[in-house]
Queue: 4 jobs
Job 1
Amino acid sequence: MNHSDIEWSLQGSAIRAGLNIVKGLSADAIDAIIEQRRKAKFKDIDDLRRRVRFRRPDLQNLIHVGACDGLGPTRPAMLNGLRFALPQEAQPMLFDIYGSRAIESLPDYDRVAKLAAELDVTGVPFTMHPAVLLPTRHMMGGSVKAEGLGDGSIASGQHHRQAALDAATRSIRYVTATRLHEFCGRKATVAGFVAAARRARTGDNRVMGFVTVEDATGLAEVSFFPDQIALYRTICSYGGPVWVTGKVTEHLSSISLDACNCGRLA
């Protein structure tokens, strides 16, 4: 709150997020924050409330995402304090109800709650990479293409449908992007978020796809050859974490995964 500009800015060797990425925060509120901060930094959450007129949801979002960290004891305590009327500065009180409120101690968010707040309010993770939360083992629901079905389509008949379900729901250990080279020539599964995707045409004019999957350790390059282009379209339609299984190959010192199966992580 005492440091962010309107937009993203470079401060020393750090990149600081701008106030304009906070969901719902009006331009008038941002201008008021900047103007008041030029006069003096905000001392605490009550000082901020006195000097800037907020809509309640705007201030809740600022506290929730961590923009007010350092202006009060914890985020839950500051959010709880919004239930109370703001006392006038230096106003004599018969009963110290505001003092009691100010020292109220509520446990702060843990790292997962902070990450959830960041994604909810700004869409940008600051606390940690979301892929850190992906389990090393995960029971996968649903199916896109199950290993052993050959052509990538769900074949008709009860036997093939059950085989697809069994293959898509068994537990698989994921390999981190930085360790993918250790599995060269073998089948492996990576999990993370789609960071980039593009299509290209082969020499015989068929379409193939390339996807970059990002996990907490780095980037894994995944190739979808023409016979797996349906999987490419499917994985590009997902909005959350995904998994991809394939054979790890090396070409010109570059490691990639030739996809044969993929799906969404719940």
Job 2
Amino acid sequence: MDRWRGSALRKPPPAIDARRAEAERGGGGGETGEGPEEPVSPTGRLFREPHFSCYIVSVFGLGARVDLAAVRVGLEATLARHPRFCSVQTVNDVLLGVTSAVLSRFYFRKTGESGRKSIKVRSTLLVNLRKTPGLHALATMMESGKDNGAEWGNRLGYMILPFHIAMHDDDPLEYVRKATKVARRKKSSMESVFTYWSASMIMKIFGIKAAASLCYGMMRNTTLSFSNMAGPTEQVVFYGHPIVYIAPSVYGHPHALTMHYQSYMNIIKLVLAVEEEQFPDAHELLDDFAVSLKLIREAASGKNT
């Protein structure tokens, strides 16, 4: 039985029907001057379904005071015309190992159980199967208003990632070794492809509600969510505002703990989304991350000398 399973973090905001709002403003029933609005992608429909109600949010830290007029003009000229996003999801062996070490340290400290005990918990990892276009192709598409062969949106499958909960104080690199075996097996499998196409087939045959119930049930039978997003290696400017950091998160899903790793400018940030009733001392997880990463780095340095 999963010890850390919890309810949704908070109630999702009411959905906004863009077509209805446009019609109320006299926009002709959801059509613009450029033609009918493109429907929401299957993944977007799935996330917004009441059976699922999953919302992805992201916080951008800016290095300058916000110029609202400049941002508004930029959004209207680019993202407002192409409101879908693509994401690059990766599986980093070392981060998987560090996460196992973090969860192990936190669990055995809280329960007081013997570190010799070995437990396995499962995590869901979303994988985008759509080929990611280059930045130049996306920039050209936004400027011209034409697709130019580039595609927005995600085609999301998922994997079930096991995390081994055990203490390896005598050899911290054991966490990384086990994680590497898991990552190699998952990367060479067709698990994410199968889950994507099976969900698509269920959606077409039985409808969006059946697909949402299936995905929600899958998540209820796992312990936590894990995410590892690859960001730009160089600093990005957001309509004249340099971005200092990126912090993605998610809520509405039935997990009490979600761990996001976001890389940006060769720096990785850990973002936690927790159910406060289940994790009132979530800051200790961050402390455990710092300690676990330090021990693994020291062990790796010792092996190389």
Job 3
Amino acid sequence: MLSIIAGFLAGFAVGAVAFVLIGGGVPGLIVGAIAATAGYVAVSSLTERSRRIGSIAVELVPDGDKALAAIDQANARLKSISALRSRIIDMRVKAEADDFIAATNDLIRYVGEDPHSYPTLNHFINVYGEQTESLLNGYLDVERSGVTSQMGQARTEAIEALQALERTAAGELTRAVKAKTLALSADSDAIVRLSRMDGYDSDNATAAIADAGDSANSGDSASSSDSDGAAEHATAGKVA
């Protein structure tokens, strides 16, 4: 919002100056309008704060825009769900809603750390977000009705559904992390395979390390012998 206001003021000022410099009239209006537009675009672009994922600007992160859109959508949905949760009287139902919100926040945080996993968050929110709001709205309707004969069943069903939602959110997080682990395993296998193709399997690698150690020790011994010989020669010269 600040960038829009600053851009508008700057554009107006630049346009007014251009109008005066041209000498008014139709040419002044045309040039002033062009200058005002350019000033607005330039200043609003300069003053707009770049959004970040973690500590990195969104535009520098692969899939950053998509991940940020998924995070914004999830946060907006959680805000609505939290508002409904605050109106619930039953403490057990409220606690289950808290657990669901916490599990969803864990998933959101992970997407912030690994933007490539944004499809998992998108899927979860698109499939379960609206249903969760509908569930809580329905429970609130029953709770506010004061019909005690229906309260027990409504409470049981709400708790069961919220527990299932919490398990689902945790499962989606596990699935996202598992995908990352599988990618890591694939990279590790590829590195080991390429190393073996170059002749560096585990046995050869051990032998190469041993050879390198022997070479280093031999070099140290030779240097030590040369130093000792030089010292003896210098001593003999002094005695003579």
Job 4
Amino acid sequence: MQTYMQLATETLEKITRKLKYKRLDIQLWLSNNGIKDKGLQEEIMCSIRDIIKRKEDFDEHRPLLNLPQKHKRDIKRLVCKSLLENVPTLGKASKDKYLWSLICDSLKPVYLIENTYIIRQGEVLDAMLFINQGTVCTFSTNDENGIRCLNKGDFFGEELLNWVLAPLASSGPSEQIPLSKITLKCKTKVEVFSLWVDDLKNIVSGNHLRIKKFRRIIGCTDAKDELEDLAAKSLQAAFAAFHRHMADPKQKTRTSLARKATKCAMCFS
């Protein structure tokens, strides 16, 4: 019994030391990302302690890869709010809370080391990227301005978003995914959030009415959308006229007499 208690005490002390060592880095990450809610911070630390208790490794430098799904969702919605708002098109989506949440929940955290190529010029642009930490260099073979840097808050790949939202034909965007016009290479360790093309397509295809409204907000409509809007307005006008017609007592009497006359005609026919 004494041996068991001694082992349990040693295990607890080991967990406490390990958690204390990781706590500083995790709290720094939370602070750098504007997560100041003490309650949420404590919940996250409790989850990390449980993970360590299960003798699972927890990478404090990549916290979003290990945390429970609930905490991932809460953190992404807080952290990515400002990142998404930096994109003119996506910033307008914030008016639709449901659509905004879908976009935030679809973001995937990606961690890259320095000198890693994210995408090369001419490759398929299959994700939109939002820089959360670190520095990414961009350059192209036909850019006279040379190398540029993307830092926290910057984004890349807005043309992919425009491509998915473009109401081309009846089936949506064309099959030809845009190609990257520039090369992206990590200058430092980088943390980015990626919005993959398949996730974007799923959001668009599964929320037709919301996306249609969003297209109208950003001025991305075609002749089909305009015809549908015109048909909807005409139908609304017809219903309004019908209700006005029925609200008039004289019209009600005329309608009632007309119905009786029709019934009589049917009886004698």
